[in-house]
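@channel sequence for tomorrow's demo:
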Amino acid sequence: MKINLPNQITLARLVLAVVFFVLLARFDIRQPNMLLLDVCTVLFIVAALTDWLDGYLARKHNQVTAMGRVLDPFVDKVLVCGTFVFLAGASFRNIDGYQVTGLQPWMAVLILGRELLVTGLRGFSESRGISFGANHFGKAKMVLQSVAAPVLLFLVAHFSTTHYPLAVDWFKFTIVWATVIVTAASMLPYLIHSRSILTEADAA
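C-alpha cells (generated this afternoon):
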C-alpha cells in the first residue's frame, strides 16, 4: 500500500514524538539539564506544526484517506497526552515536593480520560456510518494544549521560581487551569452529539 505525503508526515510526527519522549524521560528537575528541555521544546513545536501541515496538504490535494483519519488523531493524542503525563510526573517535582510545571497528576488523568472518551464515541459513531469530525471546541482544545506544553517546558527551563516566584507561578497556574477547563468543557458538545446515537443503539 502506497502511503501518501500527508500520511508520511503523520508517521514522521509519531517518530518525533518517540524521540521527544525518550529525551524528556532523561530529564530530572533535581539534576536539571535545561538544554535538554530546550531541545524537547523545539521537538514538540515541530511535531505540533506538522499536525497542521498534514491536514492542510490532505485537504488541498484531496488526499484524505481512511488511514489518515485514524492515524492523525491517534498520533495527536499520543503526543499531547504523553507530554502532559510527563509534565505531571516525578521528574518535574523538586526535593521539596513542589511540582514545577504546576500540572498535577489528576489533571493529566482528566486530559487522558477526555481523549479516550471522545475517541470511543468517535469510533462507535463512525462504525454506524455517522460522521464524527472534530468541532470548533475540539480544535480550540487542541490549540491550547499544543501551546501550553511547550510554554511550560520553556518556563521550567528558563525561569527560576527563586527569581520570579509570583509572576511565573501565576502564569503557569493560568495556562494549566485554562487547559484543564477547556479540555473538560470540550467533552460536552461531543456527549450531546452522541446522545441520540447511543439512545438509538440502546433501542435497537
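heads up for whoever presents: The longest helix spans residues 34-60.
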